[in-house]
Design brief:
Radius of gyration: 20 Å
Distance between the termini: 44 Å
Structural class: mainly alpha
Low-confidence stretches: 1-19, 195-217
Number of strands: 0
Shape: elongated
Order of helices and strands: HHHHHHH
Number of helices: 7
Mean pLDDT: 84
Length: 217
């Protein structure tokens, strides 16, 4: 860790360092569990900020809905983690999750690319599934540790979140395989979601009275 904040050229790095406390000694599985929960708590809060942007960038109404639905689910995950901290007798504190920062930065880069709509949706699904797989691994680990530490109630709560992350990943796979990947591969310039009737006018730029404009290709 860089200790001299003034030498950092990135403000966010400076802020991050100023928030960190001296490393604590992790001398037990319980302490390791508590530290990892802080990391996951940070990851979920970061995701809360990213999901609305991903939903806005998506074209298919099904994918938009999936992101919006998972936003609500993620808020539940944050609240569930706060319950977990309470059960462990610890304050709910976040420790900046650098892994999630990196995953979301990749997602941001995808959203800034010049892509056809179907290709963009395929990229968004890929970015979202990277996040889901990271969370699945993280929650699986802390669930197992909680059980080993005799924290069965905590383990049950973490299992609930793990199940929900798995369902979200499965839904994204179904969207990719049922429509998005095929459309992205065809590249025929006529990509629409299942809500085709509502999307078609806006895509063609015909519904001027509604304020819709054609998207750039």
């Amino acid at each position: 860790m860089v200790r001299n904040c003034a030498r950092s050229t990135r403000t966010e790095s400076c802020d991050f360092q100023s928030e960190q406390k001296p490393n604590i000694k992790i001398d037990s599985l319980r302490t390791l569990l508590e530290e990892e929960l802080k990391d996951i708590y940070s990851a979920e809060k970061q995701l809360l900020k990213a999901l609305p942007k991903m939903a806005k960038k998506a074209t298919a109404s099904e994918l938009q809905s999936a992101f919006k639905e998972h936003l609500d689910v993620t808020q539940g995950h944050v609240e569930r983690l706060e319950e977990v901290f309470e059960l462990l007798g610890k304050p709910a504190k976040a420790k900046t999750c650098k892994a999630m920062q990196g995953l979301l930065e990749e997602g941001k880069e995808i959203m800034e690319e010049d892509m056809d709509d179907a290709v963009m949706d395929a990229g968004l699904i890929a970015a979202a599934q990277k996040v889901e797989h990271y969370e699945i691994a993280s929650y699986g680990t802390v669930r197992t540790w909680a059980r080993r530490c005799g924290e069965e109630e905590v383990a049950e709560l973490l299992q609930e979140t793990l199940d929900e992350e798995g369902e979200a990943d499965k839904k994204l796979t179904e969207l990719a395989e049922s429509m998005v990947n095929e459309e992205a591969n065809d590249g025929d310039g006529d990509y629409q979601s299942g809500d085709a009737a509502a999307k078609a006018p806006a895509k063609k730029g015909a519904a001027k009275k509604s304020g819709a404009t054609a998207k750039r290709r």
